[in-house]
UniProtKB/TrEMBL annotation, chain A:
Its main location: membrane. Residues 1-26 are annotated as: Disordered. InterPro entries: MetI-like, MetI-like_sf, Phosphate_PstC. It comes from Fictibacillus aquaticus. Belongs to the binding-protein-dependent transport system permease family. CysTW subfamily. Residues 93-305 form the ABC transmembrane type-1 domain. Part of the binding-protein-dependent transport system for phosphate; probably responsible for the translocation of the substrate across the membrane. Coiled coil: none annotated. Residues 1-12 have a biased composition (Polar residues). This is Phosphate transport system permease protein. The chain crosses the membrane at residues 35-56, 87-115, 136-157, 169-192, 213-234, 283-305. NCBIfam families: phosphate_pstC (TIGR02138). GO terms for cellular component: plasma membrane.
From TrEMBL, chain B:
This is Phosphate transport system permease protein PstA. GO terms for molecular function: phosphate transmembrane transporter activity. Keywords: Cell membrane, Membrane, Transmembrane, Transmembrane helix, Transport. Residues 75-280 form the ABC transmembrane type-1 domain. Gene3D superfamilies: MetI-like. Belongs to the binding-protein-dependent transport system permease family. CysTW subfamily. One of its GO terms (biological process) is phosphate ion transmembrane transport. It is a multi-pass membrane protein. One of its GO terms (cellular component) is plasma membrane.
Length: 316, 292
């Protein structure tokens, strides 16, 4: 009898415990998704923060410098005193686009060729060796590439082009290109790998050589992914900072000569951050206007890449 | 009469085969170019950096005299910044990934978050610097502190961690979840006890790779206002600081050859740190990764 009562009371206790546990667990069950949603919202807030800060400070800048001057003036001389300062973004955009063009002239042919080799010619064993090495190349910090551009590539180029200045557009352009090679190679290779083997086999059965298969069958089929990788590469080159800051110099100009010093948008932002332009000066606000321009350039490129890979994708 | 002229066919075949082998040569050369560049880069840094690389180089503070200069402040500064970046970006990144993969309904809002994250990944790092300068340094008045730098870096690598964690969560098969539900587990219990542990190796690999990217980043911290010349180590989260890449930038941008050699020595240290982190990531991936 006693044992029974004990049992039933302990069972009652268990039920009570269980209930309180359940209600606690029901509470966690409800709060956890909210916590995770809060985390997800931080990422949206980051975007909002970027757009908002850039816009707000850029507007302050445009209260002092007219937007017409910003877009049409060909000179960028902010450090000549408030009176004589020139704020013409064209000079910085010209520097950025020069470096980007040189970089893409290096990265597109080499990256695409490496992608074709890896996806069409290389054996699985070779691929297994080369791909990690390309990943290492992609993981090297940009400061290291900058050092390499200044202390190795520039002196090397000077052997061939004696008029080359210590700071120039050519050397950082080439090194930015080298930095982007792994990105283009791996993204393009992914796109080519997605082309089904039956298409290759069909072409080979008709007597095509591997080269013809690569150029006339695989490349056209993977074109959207390949072009998207180029566009992402351009976006990356436009936003690249340390290489151009170290090896490109700080002379904003719109008459481009690749052997002479230039300045990119990113390098200007670094130059101002390094100096002592106080909070509230026009120079301080100018980095936001430059940052806004930079952000728009890369955003358009990224959206373009997404559009290309969605719109022109061939489904198999 | 033969319909096919054997002469012409043979000639054309010869040309096509020649084109194929030339092209193959060019493709191999292009691939080799990338590898050779890497080899040259490592060789140059190795040969320049050995001169000043010593134990004192690691334990000394920066100095105007190259033979007494070291990276201690930068090394400790990097550790401090990572001590902020790692937990913040891990918690926010994994939280976002769990929300998107496990809880979110497939609607416009979820798609918006997803697109937003992939676009954030494409924003240049220096723009994150401007964000950090405005929000953390000025608005929240954290000044040019370790905390401001670390939070900026956390936002920078957040998209990378989210995407890697999402991929890891997606590889956990339905069967495991359903078995757990079948045993009476709730959704959160399933996520905490089943899904998360199964996805953890993938998540950790992605996080370590993202952190190693943050360690090499220079531009955002330059904008946020890490110092270039520091002869002290940070004492707390609100101290001023420098990090390894900024110290290297400072040395590289000086004209004297000796400082370039110092920079090369520092680069060796930086690359060794990154190599160790990447090896850990690869080890975790190979050792704990299960194929379901």
């Amino acid at each position: 009898m006693d044992g029974n009562r004990n049992n039933s009371s302990s069972i009652r206790q268990m039920i009570k415990d269980n209930k309180s546990k359940r209600s606690r667990s029901a509470l966690t069950e409800k709060t956890m998704p909210k916590l995770f949603l809060a985390c997800a919202i931080i990422s949206i807030l980051t975007t909002v923060g970027i757009v908002f800060t850039l816009l707000a400070e850029t507007f302050t800048f445009f209260e002092r410098v007219s937007i017409v001057e910003f877009v049409t003036n060909k000179h960028w001389f902010p450090f000549t005193g408030e009176e004589h300062a020139d704020y013409g973004i064209i000079a910085l955009v010209a520097g950025t686009l020069t470096v980007t063009a040189i970089a893409m002239a290096v990265a597109i042919p080499v990256g695409l060729a490496a992608a074709i080799y890896l996806s069409e010619y290389a054996s699985a064993k070779t691929r297994k060796i080369i791909k990690p090495i390309l990943e290492v190349l992609a993981g090297v910090p940009t400061i290291v590439y900058g050092f390499f551009a200044l202390t190795f590539v520039t002196p090397l180029l000077k052997e061939f082009i004696p008029t080359l200045k210590i700071f120039n557009a050519l050397s950082p352009g080439i090194v930015v290109g080298i930095m982007i090679i792994p990105m283009i190679a791996s993204l393009s290779e992914d796109a080519m790998n997605a082309v089904p083997n039956s298409m290759r086999e069909g072409a080979l059965a008709l007597g095509a050589t591997k080269f013809e298969v690569a150029i006339k069958v695989v490349l056209p089929a993977a074109l959207s992914g390949v072009i998207a990788s180029f566009v992402l590469g351009i976006s990356r080159a436009i936003g690249e900072t340390m290489i151009v800051t170290i090896a490109g110099g700080s002379r904003p100009t719109s008459d481009i000569n690749v052997t002479e010093s230039i300045q990119t948008m990113t390098a200007y932002i670094v130059q101002v951050s390094q100096g002592d332009a106080g909070f509230g000066t026009t120079i301080y606000y100018s980095i936001y206007a430059v940052g806004m321009t930079l952000f728009l350039f890369t955003l358009i490129m990224n959206l373009l890449a997404q559009f290309i890979s969605r719109r022109f994708r061939e489904e198999y | 009469m033969a319909l096919i002229k054997k002469e012409t066919v043979r000639k054309r075949m010869g040309r096509r085969i020649a084109a194929n082998s030339t092209a193959k040569g060019i493709f191999i050369a292009a691939t080799m170019f990338a590898l050779v560049v890497l080899a040259v880069l490592l060789y140059r840094i190795g040969s320049e950096g050995m001169e000043y690389l010593s134990l004192e180089f690691i334990t000394n503070f920066a100095s105007r005299m190259p033979e007494r200069a070291g990276i201690w402040a930068a090394l400790i500064g990097t550790l401090w910044v990572m001590a902020v970046t790692a937990p913040v970006s891990f918690i926010l990144g994994v939280g976002t990934a769990i929300y998107l993969e496990e809880y979110a309904k497939k609607n416009a809002f979820t798609r918006f978050i997803q697109i937003n994250i992939s676009n954030l990944a494409g924003v240049p790092s220096i723009v994150f610097g401007l964000l950090g300068l405005t929000i953390f340094v000025r608005l929240l008045e954290l000044q040019r502190s370790v905390l401001a730098g670390g939070l900026t870096m956390a936002l920078l690598i957040l998209p990378v961690i989210v995407v890697a964690s999402q991929e890891a969560l997606r590889t956990v098969p339905r069967d495991l979840r359903e078995a757990s539900y079948g045993m009476g587990a709730t959704k959160w219990q399933t996520i905490r006890r089943i899904v998360f542990p199964a996805a953890l190796p993938g998540i950790l690999t992605g996080t370590i790779l993202a952190l190693s990217r943050a360690i090499g980043e220079t531009a955002p911290l330059l904008v946020v206002g890490a110092l270039a010349y520091v002869a002290f180590v940070p004492e707390n989260l609100f101290s001023q600081f420098t990090v390894l890449p900024i110290q290297l930038y400072n040395w590289t941008s000086r004209p004297q050859e000796d400082f370039h050699m110092l920079a090369a020595s520092g680069i060796i240290v930086l690359l060794i740190i990154l190599l160790i982190m990447n090896s850990i990531a690869v080890y975790i991936r190979n050792k704990f990764h299960k194929r379901f």
